[in-house]
Amino acid sequence: MRDLVVATVRDILAAHEPFVLTRERPWDSGLWAELAEAGLTGVGIPEEAGGSGGELADAVAIVATLAAGAAAVPVAEQLLVAAPAVLAADLDLPAPDEPLSAAVDGAVTAEPRDDGDGPGSWTLIGTATDVAWAGVAQHLVVLAGSPVGPVLALVDVAGRETTHAANLAGEPRGSLVLQGVTAAGALLTERQADELRARYALARAVQLSAALEQVLAWTVQYAGERQQFGRPLGKFQAVQMQLAEMAGEVTAVAALVDSAVQAIERGDSPVLAAAAAKVRAGSAVEVVARLAHQVHGAIGFTQEHRLHHLTRRCWSWRDEAGTETAWARVLGAGLLADGPDALWPALTRVL
Amino acid sequence: MRDLVVATVRDILAAHEPFVLTRERPWDSGLWAELAEAGLTGVGIPEEAGGSGGELADAVAIVATLAAGAAAVPVAEQLLVAAPAVLAADLDLPAPDEPLSAAVDGAVTAEPRDDGDGPGSWTLIGTATDVAWAGVAQHLVVLAGSPVGPVLALVDVAGRETTHAANLAGEPRGSLVLQGVTAAGALLTERQADELRARYALARAVQLSAALEQVLAWTVQYAGERQQFGRPLGKFQAVQMQLAEMAGEVTAVAALVDSAVQAIERGDSPVLAAAAAKVRAGSAVEVVARLAHQVHGAIGFTQEHRLHHLTRRCWSWRDEAGTETAWARVLGAGLLADGPDALWPALTRVL
Amino acid sequence: MPSTLTLAPVVPSAAAEQVRAEVREFLAAELAAGTFTTHVDTWLSGVDPAFSRKLGERGWLGMTWPRRYGGHERTAMERYAVTEELLAAGAPVAAHWIADRQSGPNLLRYGTEAQRAEILPRIAAGECYFVIGMSEPDSGSDLASIRTRATRNGDGDWVVNGAKVWTSNAHTSHYAITLVRTSPADPAHRHAGLSQLLVDLSLPGITVNPIRILDGGHHFNEVVFDDVVVPGDMLLGEEGNGWHQVTAELAFERSGPERFLSTYPLIAEFARRVADSGDPAQLATLGRVSARLLALRQLSLRIAGALDRGELPDIPAALVKDVGTTFEADVIDEVRRAVDVPASLDSPDPLGRALAEAQLHAPGYTLRGGTNEILRGIVARGLGLR
Amino acid sequence: MPSTLTLAPVVPSAAAEQVRAEVREFLAAELAAGTFTTHVDTWLSGVDPAFSRKLGERGWLGMTWPRRYGGHERTAMERYAVTEELLAAGAPVAAHWIADRQSGPNLLRYGTEAQRAEILPRIAAGECYFVIGMSEPDSGSDLASIRTRATRNGDGDWVVNGAKVWTSNAHTSHYAITLVRTSPADPAHRHAGLSQLLVDLSLPGITVNPIRILDGGHHFNEVVFDDVVVPGDMLLGEEGNGWHQVTAELAFERSGPERFLSTYPLIAEFARRVADSGDPAQLATLGRVSARLLALRQLSLRIAGALDRGELPDIPAALVKDVGTTFEADVIDEVRRAVDVPASLDSPDPLGRALAEAQLHAPGYTLRGGTNEILRGIVARGLGLR
């Protein structure tokens, strides 16, 4: 099934031009409609919840394929972060063709409503910042703080005003004012909240891994085709050293991210595995993007060239859902949880 | 005069084998004797103070030449640190043929003696640690703390017991117990104490700069001579890139260290210039030593080859007289002294 | 150190410190008046003819040129101080930058008296801007492979056909010093048959097409020449000497402070964060970055001193550009490691905005004016390796 | 990803975790008993035959080999867990390391039944040690240029003359698998005419001369062969097939955890400092370093999995060694940036001692077993570039 799903995504992508994001065209709604029609925005979501079935790894494969294609659609957020969180919290999942995103930064507080609706209904107060696909998503999963612990709330945000902000690739990252909004929600444990943040980080790591792999492939291809001083770039030893260095980074990231996904699928705690994946993937961006642009030369620096669709995303994705530095601290602290003499056992337990 | 001095040092060095430091042979006393006899251990010290005259820059040239030759003698400490400090403090300088070193780490306290000798006599209490040429130096300048401020004390340490310790190159770096030792000394201002530490750092930067330059020269020479796959190593583009990277580091270090020496000779405050020189020189070690060993291959990793005499010194000198990290903090804080908006004016004032 | 890399020290110049103080005062007043705001990499992206004219009025353009061409006969050290202050402030200097740095000196070196008299005073006034017409779509680092050609017509004028790319700000500039092939390519003598022409960009047959860079910014252009008739007296230097002339020109442009200060505004913004936090690790990062900058400054200053002595230190200049542009990009990583601020042009945090600007321009630092691989090849040659 | 670099995931192995726990318990007991102390890079420098025999007794050598040769028919994943635990503890494993990792598998692949039956059980018992006889004084990275030669004498035995260098611990080892030229060099077929001989280091005519490394440590040797008569049946594999055999052997040796864990004891020591300080920047450094290590571990594990499936993933193995050995050295810089501890073997601070050990061994990491430039060339070939 996974190969078929990936082939379908590729076919759909192939019919779409690289999408140039602007303030006026903040997402590729046409691509989304096709993906939704093919049931691909519901993969990994059980059929009884309105989804298309399939496993986490299928959803990951879709997210990776779309990331490598620089697709301007909120599929990573929906399939890997928001929908699993809604299902785990036993809330009603919106239809998979209505874009769903997540805000986990926690500048929002939730108060239980006292109108008799019970603990399942909350009033949200505050502003969700740096919201992926703000203004595009129709529903938003918000991780809010409350006097009784973290709350996962599901908010209908269709038509709600958002501030304009975008990441380096132009993907919408605006803020939403949620002052006094009523929403269905569920209490989480602190650990569940941490795991939600970790899943978000892992989603970005999956995207990074796929994008970096594609950047390598494009660069190898370019080096094989572009002639300089009478021979292909790829025949120059200096360029070979650069491509091999890129390949080293990409291969290491791919193995770690892939293993992290599998560990989570096996039911292991995602926090340290996701932290490691996000740190490793993020730190590869500097090398891979730099060398890709260096090998491509000036042409790769232009808007017409495809390269920037991925390098700009990578420069932002490494910062999003927690920077490398933030996750590195989490990983470092987590590995020392049983004391410094237990570092090695801790390392071998992560993955 | 400077060229003549350097030529004399080179001639003397040329007659000496690279000196293999061991616990039993902690310095090259034969070389020292020749240098002293030629008056080279008194350069930069006025003749009326028993020295050979000349300027700071002459002393720097001698130190640089000896550093590039991996000479196992305490000339940097004597000419660039200890002797100028003794003279500035108006203490009696020992004869230049008696090795003089300095300990500025400040684990020693000084108490004014109450026996009527006046403030010029102090009792030292504590242990001087990481003392360059401990066991070799006959006199030691100690920067000690006292209730009334920093004290520069001059201690006769000939024959005094030292703990054995060496840096990565085998240069003695032991400790001296100075419990209750009487010494001539002078009060310094905090600023003078800072400047003494800075001069020590600059001395190490001068040594690093010269050693790194020599390492580059050896590596270029080796790459030109060593054949691999039927042609000299230096014809391989990957090796050319490595040598150019080394040259970039070495040239940058040389310019900064040289300018710092000149600024100090002009009478500028040495602290930030020395801090910058030490940080920059220290950070070049990783690149230059790594690439030098990589180009040299396994042969450069052997004790028989000359390369390690310098790379091991560089690995230690970057840590000594304050690590790069310690001096980088000093530099960063110093540049912000007039507030962050004055960073640029501060930068242009350093050098 | 090989003699090719040795640079004699410079003595501090009171005149340079004097003009530095004047520029600093001027910039503070302009910033206070809101004439400009600080940005990263403004010598590529900050086009502001009014600002350029102000600099011209103050005598800060064409500083080292003879007075008879509108210059001010000041030293390279003084010019260094002025350019450095402008870059550190992130001032909008892109309009005149190439003309002042490179094209003017090129005209002084190779131009006819008429060319100099006509053009140099206008450059020095901040009114006449140049672009570099070297690269072509297929040439890449192999400049000898260019295909734009110029042939003499019956009137003795040049007829130019071809296209140049990566011409910074051609849409706001007046002239392009254009490298053209004036004799057919000869594989045995790849560098022969090239010449430089002084091309007025308003001539008929010239089309300027924008090339937007990855963040959408319009700084670069393609300049297409379609039977453009360039007057015969607009040859710059000698026919057939183009390779030699561009090599000298490139050496000239490589050593300036714009090769290590493009991202200085990011450092300045980071310093504000460090001053607030007082965090020791951040202080150390600021110190490390500053030490690298200070070393580059000394190298660049020494090259300015060598230019004052009439030398052409091409190999150290290549080295400065390699080390300097590597540093410009490294600043981003150093800051990213030290703070926890996502890069975004829309960030409410000025540090986030500076990170974003620096990152989006980063691929350019080590490509423009000769890739670092080419530069390292030049340095390796300077080491005697090929 | 090019298929040459793709590595299938491995499923966790309960058997591997079981043996990992056993090794961990064993090591804790040995450390507590003071049998060894933790050091950096002990797979080169930690020769301790008694320790090797203990491992043999427990069945932790020759783990994947057939039982009839003294092996234990366990998986590469299980062997991986054992080697990794030994390296992480900085245990003295140098005596048997080459024999267990490389020479044994080489014998299994190419050896005669007699050779296997004679030698493999002794390796698995931790009693028989091997060195790699490939490099020569003038060969460097160009292994095809070796000059040690072997000629058949009238008895059908081999007479060997020449010298091998960088033979780790030849002074404590029993055999050298020696690459020799058995036909004259042919410039048109540089890789032809080479063969491997199984040479008993106690044979007359062999001299082992120490080559001390820069810290004075004696791990490497020169092994000189002066008319050494090697019995004819000590040919390993096919005559003339030596190039192919060493290439396969090198691929085998490149992917193990010793290519990224040589400096793990430094990380462990650093972690103690971080736990004490709780400093956020140090925690981040520990996290960054750990993330790199975890990625390398996954790569290395996947290669172990591929070996279990009978594959020979030579290109990923070259990649792991390149990335891993770069990491081993980078650990030093990461730690140096995060702490303020001078490196010295005589330091009272264990972190200073670990830094010193790691630094003094650093040049070896990216040279031994093929330089990183050679490895990157192999990876580039895997990308389809030459």
UniProtKB/TrEMBL annotation, chains A, B:
Protein name, as recorded: Acyl-CoA dehydrogenase
Keyword Iron: no
Domain Acyl-CoA dehydrogenase/oxidase N-terminal residue range list: 7-76
Enzyme Commission number(s) of this protein: 1.3.8.7
Gene Ontology molecular-function annotations: flavin adenine dinucleotide binding; medium-chain fatty acyl-CoA dehydrogenase activity
Cofactor(s) the protein requires to work: FAD
Keywords: FAD, Flavoprotein, Oxidoreductase
Location of the Acyl-CoA dehydrogenase/oxidase C-terminal domain: 203-324
Similarity comment text for this entry: Belongs to the acyl-CoA dehydrogenase family.
From TrEMBL, chains C, D:
Gene3D superfamilies: Acyl-CoA dehydrogenase/oxidase, N-terminal domain, Butyryl-CoA Dehydrogenase, subunit A, domain 2, Butyryl-CoA Dehydrogenase, subunit A, domain 3
InterPro entries named in the record: Acyl-CoA_DH_CS, Acyl-CoA_Oxase/DH_mid-dom, Acyl-CoA_Oxase/DH_mid-dom_sf, AcylCo_DH-like_C, AcylCo_DH/oxidase_C, AcylCoA_DH/ox_N, AcylCoA_DH/ox_N_sf, AcylCoA_DH/oxidase_NM_dom_sf
A Pfam family assignment: Acyl-CoA_dh_1
SUPFAM superfamilies from the UniProt entry: Acyl-CoA dehydrogenase C-terminal domain-like, Acyl-CoA dehydrogenase NM domain-like
Keyword annotations from UniProtKB, A to Z: FAD, Flavoprotein, Oxidoreductase
Alphabetized PROSITE patterns for the sequence: ACYL_COA_DH_1
Name of this protein: Acyl-CoA dehydrogenase
All copies of domain Acyl-CoA dehydrogenase/oxidase C-terminal, residue ranges: 264-383
GO MF annotation terms: acyl-CoA dehydrogenase activity; flavin adenine dinucleotide binding
Acyl-CoA oxidase/dehydrogenase middle domain mapped to chain residues: 132-228
Domain Acyl-CoA dehydrogenase/oxidase N-terminal: 15-127
Cofactor: FAD
Family: Belongs to the acyl-CoA dehydrogenase family.
An example Gene Ontology CC term for this record: plasma membrane
